[in-house]
Amino acid sequence: SAHRLTVVEQRCVRRGRRRPFLPPRGPSPRRMNAVVGHLPPVTRSLIVASGTLMILCSLDVISPFSLYLNWQLIVYELQWWRLVTCFLFSGTFGLHYFWNTYVLVFYCSSLEAVSFHNKSADFLWMLMCSAGMLLILTYFFGNSYFISGAVTDVMTYVWGRRNPAARMQLLFFTVRAPYIPWVLALISLLMGGNIQDHLMGVAAGHVYYFFEDVYPLLPTSKGIRLFTTPRALKMICGQRE
Questions:
Q1: Helix axes 148-162, 120-140, angle to 10 degrees
Q2: 229 pLDDT more than 60
Q3: Mean pLDDT for the chain?
């Protein structure tokens, strides 16, 4: 059925004028909720937290200087929040932020939805353990201030190793899953990123994958799992045993 004309459009038609240009309607809150709401819970929380920091910093409500990783301020000034915000801040409004969000939505969410289906606590524990390893690597070997990209590399690495035969559409070409972290690192490097962050993310992802998927199957492991999710975290997330 034909759409209803507005009062302005009706006047223009009567006077023989062309229909005026009307800007497209922005996304309603209901549409935005439909886009974000279908994502798994942990990935959705990461995107919301990252988007909130992006908006606050873009509007100069808070400064990125209060979010970056600084061990002297953490140890001597007790600014503990930097241990978390350095993973959540992906930049202000710009290409770098939207690229990281694109990777989270289309790649990392599939890891939580498939490999960690109904296991949000296990997925969150993987991120926490990986964040701990990245902080140790950054303290001794790195000089990074924001390492959100390294966490993304951890997730893409683990997903690629668990789905070695899968192929993912990356922009305009197809990539086998195990090579996705390296391709993403190359694209980030071309956009001005730090390759060291990606190498640390791949290293942390490999440690988690080995001790979670490979080592428990070896006879010498005696079934011991290094990254067993605490029961308290499972109760908080409502995950069944």
A1: 130
A2: yes
A3: 78
